[in-house]
Design a protein that fits this description.
By secondary structure, the chain is α/β, with parallel strands linked by helices. The protein is built from ten helices and 20 strands.
Length: 377
């Protein structure tokens, strides 16, 4: 079934659907990972985006139950050069086309992904529409331009936790809290409140393995509730959208820091901490998405290969008592920070990436050591 991909500037590519009839849209981006498409599909941080995979063959190992990063697919569409319809993997429970159909998410193949990636690199990520039922390119351009831009969108509210839960090792499990936020911890590790803005499950797995007992909470959970919960530290998760729209959440982080709670975060969590400490964020031209981004740890001099997925970066100009800990070696943007006097640290990249690389796994132990050494007042 023929399909068209049209961007807001009129750029058009032809392909075909491997998931039936569809029309949809979102911000068109590209990711350079050779593996990890299932993690991309189920990462809530891709909410509102049409993702182009630069590796030419996608779907060859199917969909497995163990590799989910959340309970469903969040991206708007998957764009590939060639989709493998019959996977070869003893762990596979379903093919990629069948999984996308079950989730109601469009899949388009036959796309010239090299041309699309080059166009987005030169001109920046932009809004786009895909359709199997509309041949009028100008009509699709108009629909693409009618979509909201990523700047100014609070997408975290669409994917964040609605109620508190604990991580039982394999899945979220509902819990009961007191009206003030008090919680009966099981004594299975350092009590840690995790703000779920659209968290990847592997973060929860690795925090547990690092020695934390997790209470995950929605963005509306207040600083006073964190204190009443009995937590010894706070973790801020990844998530989608423009971090500058989360003003209430930034104010909560600022309160937690002022209360001298140890605070750390990844991706969106890093961006919220950056805002709370006096920095700002800006939109990147085409973002960082993939498994092969070089990052330098300024505290050790070590160069690491990292997995990344973000369209915004933190700018620290004028932020007092804050220093960079990691930088991106491709474009010099900030990849990590810490406060000079308070127990606060965070990173932009994804040390938890299940599909690899695993160079940044040490950060979970660093989080643990910081929180263990700095108890709140």
């Amino acid at each position: 079934m023929k399909a068209l991909l049209v961007l807001e500037d009129g750029f058009c590519l032809t392909g075909k659907s491997f998931t039936g009839a569809f029309e949809g849209g979102g911000e068109a981006i590209f990711t350079t990972g050779m593996t990890g498409y299932q993690e991309v599909l189920t990462d809530p941080s891709y909410c509102g985006q049409m993702v182009c995979m630069t590796y030419p063959l996608i779907g060859n190992y199917g969909i497995t139950a163990e590799d989910m990063e959340s309970a469903r697919v969040y991206l708007s569409a998957l764009l590939v050069k060639e989709c493998c319809k019959k996977p070869s993997n003893w762990r596979a429970k379903m093919s990629l086309p069948d999984y996308l159909v079950s989730q109601g998410v469009p899949g388009m193949e036959g796309v010239d992904t090299r041309a699309l990636t080059r166009h987005l690199r030169l001109n920046g990520a932009m809004r786009g529409v895909i359709s199997t039922g509309e041949d009028d390119v100008q009509a699709l351009v108009a629909r693409a331009r009618a979509l909201p831009t990523m700047e100014g969108q609070n997408l975290a509210e669409k994917v964040a936790a609605r109620e508190p839960y604990r991580w039982n090792g394999t899945a979220p499990e509902a819990v009961a809290l007191g009206a003030d936020g008090a919680y009966a911890w099981k004594g299975e590790g350092i009590p840690l409140v995790v703000y779920d803005f659209g968290i990847k499950w592997n973060i929860l797995r690795l925090l547990t393995a690092a020695g934390f007992e997790i209470l995950a909470v929605p963005p509306s959970f207040t600083a006073a509730q964190v204190r009443a919960s009995g937590a010894k530290g706070v973790f801020l998760s990844n998530g989608p959208g423009d971090p500058a729209t989360l003003q209430k959440e930034i104010a909560t982080v600022r309160e937690l820091v002022a209360m001298r709670f140890p605070v750390t975060g990844i991706c969106l969590g890093h961006q919220l901490i950056g805002h709370a400490l006096g920095g700002t964020t800006r939109k990147l031209k085409f973002g960082h998405h993939g498994c092969n981004h070089p990052v330098k740890d300024l505290t050790t001099g070590r160069i690491e290969i990292s997995s990344q997925n973000h369209g915004f970066c933190v700018v620290l100009d004028g932020a007092p008592d804050v220093e960079a800990t990691h930088i991106n070696l491709n474009d010099g943007t900030l990849e990590g920070l810490r406060h000079k006097n308070l127990p606060v640290m965070c990173v932009q990249f994804h040390p938890e990436a299940a599909a690899g690389p695993h160079d940044g796994l040490y950060l979970f132990q660093r989080f643990h050591d910081m929180i263990a050494a700095n108890q709140p007042a």
